[in-house]
Amino acid sequence: MITRNPLARAGQYVALAAYLVFLGFPLLWLLSTSLKSSGEINSLAVNLIPEQFAWGNYPQALDRQNLIRSAGNSLLVSVVTMVVTTLVSMPAAYALARFRGKLRAAGTAWILVSQVFPAILLIIPLFIVLRTLQLNDTMFGLILVYVTFTLPFTLWMLQGYVAAIPRDLEEAGSMDGATRFTVLRLIVFPLLVPGLVATAMFTFVAAWNEFFLALVLIQSPELYTLPLTLRTFIGLEGQTQLGPLAAGAVLATIPSLVIFGLLQRRLTSGSLAGAVKG
Amino acid sequence: MTTLTPTRPPGDPGGPGTPGSPETPGGVPRRPRRGTASRAQRTEAAALVIPATLPILVFSVIPLVTGIYLGFTNSTLRRNSTSEFTGLENYSRLLGDTFFWESFRIGLIWAVSVALLTLVAALGLALLLNADLKFKGITRVLALIPWAMPPVVVAIVWRLIYSPTAGPLNAGLEAVGLEGVNWLGDFSTALPAVIVVAVWSGIPQSTVLLLAGMQQIPIEQHEAAAVDGASSLRRFWHITLPALRPVIFAITSLDFIWSFNSFGLVYVLTEGGPGGKTMLPMLFTYLEAFTNRNTGYAAAMGNVMVLAVVLVLSGYLFVQLRRGKAVQS
Amino acid sequence: MIRNRGAAVVAGAFALTLALSACQQGSSTSGEGGGGDGGSSAADGDAVTLTFQSLAGQEATIAETQRLVDEWNTANPDVQVEIVPAAWDGVYDKLVTQFNGGSAPDVIHFEAAGIRPFAVDGYLADLTDYISEDLRSGISDGVWESVTVDDAIVAYPTMMQSYMVFANTDLLEAAGVEVPTGDTMTWDQLREIARATTRDGVYGLGWGLKSPTATVMSLGLGNDGTFFSGEGTDVEIEVGDAELAVPLAINEMATTDASIQPVSLTQSGSEVLPSFYGGQVAMTVQGSFQATNIAADAPEGFNWTVLPPLEGSASSAQSANPQTFSVNVDSEHVEESAAFIEYLMEPENLAALNYADALIPTSEQAREALAGLTADQPGWDQILASGENLTAPAFLKVDLYQQWNETVATPALQRYLAGEIDLEALRSEMTDGWSQVNRG
């Protein structure tokens, strides 16, 4: 909106600042807590800047409760989920965008339905299915489930990107006698790369952040993903060590934060418009 | 769903069809656009879709159907237990289950508040980000922070902030002479406090979508209105808001569904306490399935939740469509 | 360009294969971790590997457990034990899925109150014949009773906690209160001290009652408040005045006397400790295990002591809800697992574990060993003395206790302590809730 009134302008800046404090302060506070010694935390003093920077919380967090192993697990699950989801959804997204009719109707319907059903209704039978396939409590099983659950969003985004590629290009390719596969590989795929990268990153973050499915489907502590391990840090009656807990939380946030930093221009430049308009 | 026509594909501001890309052979005569959907084409479509369909069938459709069916059985997670079809028994028992309905009520309050408050907050932020202010770049980055945080981390952070004895929020209140509040422990503030956290973490996503919608409104409309002397408030009301209606509908619907079905945040933040004040239906159902081990009964609760969501959404859609028509005529 | 893309595809496929094979490896290790096929590890020829899921959470206990396991592994090359560290938080739900999904470890660490449903289901091995004579006689019948299901002993009881009152001696002194020295302390005495020390912005007592049920059930025994009678599925609940005496007393201190810090009632025990260190509360009721944390975390110059055990209207009894070691019935090595637990139960080993966690050993021999270890350390005489008063409570014999605890008793008690409902409503919520839980 265009406002030229200086007073309104000032008001806008004040409002913007308020938003930024609200949205950004929690991360700041987490950082601050992660650098406080247990003595300072126990003293109940409330300072944003720690009296003394206790960097030791970070090695301590990494040392405790196999945070590193969990981070490794999370990385493995997220990367493989990202790769598999992207590979699997690419052709399907293309088909959804290019072949109208029943297929498209069914695809869209499923994408919608999958949003409405609560995970709890799925998790019980999913647990049983995985048990039957001997995939319960395995990384592989978790990855398969993550692939399935990230597909709706990925398909939706990708088919938007495909639809934006002019058909003429493909048709021109076909005229030259190339097979559909060649056309896909040589013409569609290169144009799709930026979209693929963005979608893949979203998939990575979704898998990296996921908690509920892992909570039920992974039982062995050595297979815990990062969110599961962080939760065991909190403890109920046990001793809560807030410094290392906060340090672990910061470490768990960094990958997603970096990815969002990379994607931010795309996210805020209005380029998602297509996905919304549907 | 209508045809997707993004102005430009996300991720590539330049647009993929930029002339000059090496593969563009110019001036080739066109084939007729839509040939008859031949058998070959159908096979081709099937080949393209199968890799995605397989996991969806095994890990989504089959479990979903099984899950719905489980709601009509007495299945449990006990050792060597057998499950029998019990018809509507679970549901008649559910009718008298006061704990469940209380949690259901809390879930509705929670989901509606989260959806509406997120919308209002995100709309405000999107307007500010869309205005021609300074520091746009950095604000846009910062505004995305909550989105990037895993729900478990969000819960950890806000536990720190709400801490009654060592939290910055209470310290701030006390600094200005107000009394501190036991945010997550007090019965009257626990649910609102948790709602605020959910709104906080939902703002970035909604803002991004609203921003995208706003940038599609032709700037000429605003300028013409401004020339006519319309105040910015009027312009917002008569141009921006109507144009955003489909986006707003999508956002609030999705937020409502996601909140109603959300689990991780509250599970870590309060575990449903104090005294069940934040016991969302998902949490309650989880406990029934994995603490009480009554999976059949829990699935029945899941079915009721789906029904409720579908009902609320159809109502919302109905109202929306009628209003849309009224505006058009 | 085309060639490059081809290379990228190949590289991508290669990365995927690598990642997938890594997953496969991950899943096969986990399979080994599972009890079902926790069989021979290839590396050591025919050596057996046992998985031991430990809930040790405090640094000292983790280290002590590791030391004992290392010792065992050196002495028994044929039976190697691998610790699987887990956490108390949410462990019940985890065990439900572990057992049901066939991924439970061989040796399982838990507590008597929680293990019963799994024993009833048949997931736990009958250990009756593996238990040595010394151990059998060293642990009281009542405690053995708490881990017996259908005449089978399904767990070794290991460590017990009692609720203790920790006091800041400087604040007591400043308020002119003498530190009680008797064998026990009545509730009236506690109330008196709390009232006297509530002054100048200091509360007499900080009591972490976020999860109030265990405290109420345990201290309730001192008033003969048993809540349940019967066994298994044939159980009656009774919530009478004796059962409600503890919540009533807490409520009176919190409201009438205003001597309990209100915030603490909604916090966990650990969350109250900073207020205790900071001198905002003069006393705090905690599980005995917190003695270790207080000793480690209290600021320098902080003077504290443990007050005598609380005595109710009938006795100073508290519930013995011992931690347990059980064996997965599906384990291929029940015998080896039992032998490993027997080793952990040897007096000096059990004493060492209990010392690290500031808990009370279940066996007499280990208690004696521990008394020798701790002769001149603060608090330990009181902790060990309170061990004498631990008796097996009725609720340990109730199959559905855990469900009632989590879905009925805890929220109801939280509501009562927050002043949302009165004592009558608490009584009816607890009884009505039981009939809803027990309907099946």
What is the SS-derived class of chain C?
alpha/beta
| Biggest pleated sheet of chain A | none
Count of strand segments of chain C = 19
| The named CATH superfamily of chain A | MetI-like
Report mean pLDDT of chain A, rounded to a whole number: 83
Q: How many E-type strands of chain A?
A: 0
- Counted up, domains of chain A total 1
- Specify the number of helices of chain C: 18
Number of domains of chain C: 2
Q: What is the CATH architecture term of chain A?
A: Orthogonal Bundle
**Which strand order does the major sheet of chain C show?**
2-1-3-17-6
Strand content of chain A: under 5%
Word description of this protein:
The complex is a heterotrimer of chains A (278), B (329) and C (440). By secondary structure, chain A is an all-alpha fold. Chain A has a single domain (67-277), classed as Orthogonal Bundle (MetI-like fold). Chain A has helices spanning 6-34, 38-42, 57-63, 67-98, 102-116, 119-132, 139-163, 167-175, 180-209, 212-217, 226-234, 242-268, 273-277. Helix content of chain B is 66%, strand content 0%. Chain B has helices at 39-70, 89-95, 98-130, 136-142, 145-148, 151-162, 168-175, 190-214, 219-227, 232-260, 264-269, 281-290, 295-328. In chain B, helix 3 (98-130) runs antiparallel to helix 10. The longest helix of chain B is centred in the last third of the chain and has 34 residues, at 295-328. Mean pLDDT of chain B is 82; it is low at 1-35. With 440 residues, chain C is an alpha/beta fold. Chain C folds into two domains: 42-160 and 321-390, 3-Layer(aba) Sandwich (D-Maltodextrin-Binding Protein, domain 2); 163-319 and 400-437, Periplasmic binding protein-like II (D-Maltodextrin-Binding Protein, domain 2), CATH 3.40.190.10. Chain C contains 18 helices and 19 strands. Chains in contact: A-B, A-C, B-C. At the A-B interface, helix 1, helix 4, helix 5, helix 6 and helix 7 of A face helix 1, helix 3, helix 4, helix 5 and helix 6 of B.
